[in-house]
Amino acid sequence: GDSVTQMEGPVTLSEEAFLTINCTYTATGYPSLFWYVQYPGEGLQLLLKATKADDKGSNKGFEATYRKETTSFHLEKGSVQVSDSAVYFCALSGLNTNAGKSTFGDGTTLTVKP
Amino acid sequence: DAGVTQSPTHLIKTRGQQVTLRCSPKSGHDTVSWYQQALGQGPQFIFQYYEEEERQRGNFPDRFSGHQFPNYSSELNVNALLLGDSALYLCASIKRLAGEETQYFGPGTRLLVL
Predict the structure, then answer these.
(1) How far is B45 from chain A, CA to nearest CA, in Å?
(2) How many angstroms separate the CA of residue B108 from the nearest CA in chain A?
(3) N or C terminus of chain B: which is more exposed, having fewer CB within 10 Å?
(4) pLDDT tens per residue, range B3-34
(5) A87: β partners
(6) A6-20: string of b/e by CB count within 10 Å (b at 16+)?
(7) Does A106 touch chain B (CB under 8 A)?
(8) In chain A, how many H helices and how many E strands?
(9) How far is CA A55 from the centre of its chain?
(10) CB contact at 8 A, A51 and B100
(11) Is B105 an interface residue toward A (CB < 8 Å)?
C-alpha cells in the first residue's frame, strides 16, 4: 500500500538558518503530494502541494519539488523564523482517489530559536 | 467565512463506552473525511462521507461508524471504546476546483479513554 517516510526529528535551527525536511514515498501510479503544517493546539493547514512530476509547490517561502525518479518531495526554506516552529507532515493521495483520503508521514517537529 | 468546526474540543470516556464527535464543514463543501491522529504520529484515514453515504474507508474496525446529514455536517461514532482509541480526531472538508481537491482541517477533538 501507499506509504510516506519523513526524516525523523526533532529539528532545531537558529533563526535565518536553511531548512530541509526529507520526505520519500511509495505509491502506485502518480500520486499528488502535500506538505501540511500543524501549530500547537491546532488542526492541520495545507502548506503546499504538487500534483505531477517536476511540479514545484511553494508558499510562505517554503518550497518542495515533486521528484518522481527519486520518489521524493523534500521541504525547503531558505531562512526560517521563530514563527515557523511547528510540526510538518508530508502526505500523498493516490491516483483515482482524492485528497480526502490521504496517507501521512509521522511528522517532523521543527523548533526555531532566536 | 467560517472554517471547519468540531465539537467537543476535549472528551474523557472510560473503556466500553460510546462516543459521538461532530463536524461542520466549510460553507459549500459537500464532502467530509475523518482521521485519527495518535500522539506523535501522522493522521490515519478513517472514512469519507459524500452525499450522506460512506464513500471510502480506511483500515478501521466496524466499531467506527459515521453519518452525514443533508446540511453536509457529519458525525463520527465509536462504540466499545478501547484505551488505544485515545487520540486527536480530525475532520476535514473538501473543496473541488478545476479538477483538484483540497482538504481543510478542523482543530480536532481530543479523546482520552481511561
Answers:
(1) 6
(2) 6
(3) N
(4) 999 999 999 999 999 999 999 999 989 999 99
(5) A38, A109
(6) bbeeebebeeeeebe
(7) yes
(8) 0, 12
(9) 14
(10) yes
(11) yes
